[in-house]
Amino acid sequence: MRIFGLNRKIIRVLLGTEYAHMLEYRAEIALWALSGVLPFIMLSLWNGSDARGALGMVGVGLDRYFLSAFLVRQFSVVWMIYAFEEDALSGRLSPYLLQPLHPLWRYVASHLGEQLTRLPFAAGITAIFFLIQPKAFWVPSLGHFVLAWLATWMAFSIAFLLQSLIASLCFWSEKASALERLLFIPFLFLSGLLAPLTAFPPFVRTLAQWTPFPYLIDFPARVLAEQPVNLLVGFAIQLAWIVLLLPLVLLLWRAGVRRYSAMGA
């Protein structure tokens, strides 16, 4: 059985290799997991603010939302553009292009291997959170967990395609990652990482719905926290962004490969 040019054996070997590679950097990955505690910092700020009631989250709803935002971020974070830029500048991309396996699959496998390595650290941080906030403890139903996993996977796909689109510009520019840093600011404010979208004025919420950012954190986090959310609309918009971005990535990639010339050693 082949999936987009991959068969089961290639998938198994590729994931196994990348997972073993990421295990070598597990100490660094632990620090990456710890560096993702921004949602907990924002939770402490919102808990100490009189504006908490305006968020429409009663009781432990806000605690569960930010914990869910932390977990979604842990398993949807994408750093592909920086690895790709380094490979392009050093010339390592050249042999990848000569192999039958599309280079983008290597970066997908690297991210999946890193997520498996990150899993125990994320679980440990979650356990500590519940020790500090025992009232916020809950176990999502199987249905919500599966839907949250799917929403998080689709969020990862959107983020990966966005970075792949920008990374393709490395064929024309040596520092395409600078564009990704420009996207980080609207992502930070519109994704729900700093605050649930209900905290923003209606105009800002309407504007955010026309971007992919709320579907990277806010939507999957609400699904995991079992909070009111329109599942059909949310998944439809996530799928629409994937369908829109995928052909753009492939077209820009093919155009870039035609003019690519290796640099470095």
What's the quick description here?
The protein has 265 residues and is mainly alpha-helical.
What does this protein look like?
The chain has 265 residues and is mainly α. It has one domain. Helices cover 68% and strands 2% of the residues. The protein has twelve helices and two strands. The protein has helices at residues 8-23, 26-35, 38-47, 61-74, 80-90, 93-98, 103-132, 142-167, 177-190, 202-209, 218-224, 231-259, and strands at residues 2-3, 6-7. It has a two-stranded antiparallel ribbon. Strand 1 and strand 2 form a beta hairpin. Helix 1 (8-23) crosses helix 7. 33% of the residues are buried.
Secondary-structure class: mainly alpha
Find the count of extended strands (DSSP E, 2+ residues): 2
Describe the global form: globular
The span between the termini is 38 Å
The helix tally amounts to 12
Mean pLDDT comes to: 82
Instruction: Determine Rg (CA atoms, Å).
Output: 19 Å
- Helicity range: 55-70%
* The number of domains: 1
Q: Could you give a short account of the major beta sheet? A: 2 strands, antiparallel
Low-pLDDT ranges: none
Helix-strand pattern: EEHHHHHHHHHHHH
Strand content: under 5%
Q: Strands of the largest sheet, in order across it? A: 1-2
